[in-house]
Design a protein that fits this description.
The protein is of the alpha/beta class and 228 residues long. The protein has one domain: NAD(P)-binding Rossmann-like Domain (Rossmann fold, 3-Layer(aba) Sandwich), CATH 3.40.50. A seven-stranded parallel β-sheet has the order 3-2-1-4-5-6-7, with helices on both faces. α3 packs parallel to α4 and α4 runs parallel beside α5. The mean pLDDT is 95.
Amino acid sequence: MPVAIITGASRGLGLALATGLAEAGWRLVVDARDAEALATAATWIGPAAVAVPGDVTDPAHRAALVAAAAELGGVDLLVNNAGTLGPSPQPSVAAYPLDALRSVYEVNVVAPLGLVQLALPGLRARGGAVVTVTSDAAVEPYEGWGGYGSAKAAVEQVSHVLAAEEPAVRVWRVDPGDLRTRMHQEAFPDEDISDRPLPETVVPAFLHLVTTRPPSGRVRLVDVTVPA
């Protein structure tokens, strides 16, 4: 059974992806900062999930995730899904608090890279893959998205370079599209986002991606054709 680490798996997209992988026969190491919410999510996912609560910005926690995957046989897939939007409502670049910006970069850029660095030896040995969950805000200049968008742009470029440096590992920057998640609601605190699709709707495209293993690159899940 292949093994995946999925960060930010207590709700939203992370929970949907973890559930889909479990149903497809994967063993999982899942994390989130809220231990109680993570335990509930792990129960929902089923016995395939090993819950390791903690903060991805903590080096000791990142090491614990990789160690837990090693106990299951070694990591085949790392999904860097955990992230933070930053202040809500989102401030303009001109008014963005620099301490908040540092926190956004620590969670969205530094922590994923730290986890990749720890997981890479196993991923190289097993011909594994890294998924960096990104956003169209990384490539489009939306007003108010300077903090989150620039952090996603940075982690995308880190992933792009990683793909060039690690030919034995697949590295995908995956844009799931606008989904009905708590983070998306925080981005639009005064709007009704019930018209956005649920995270579960992109799981078939995600599973097709990790199963067919196309070359490293940027992937919009809406563009993935899933055979009937």
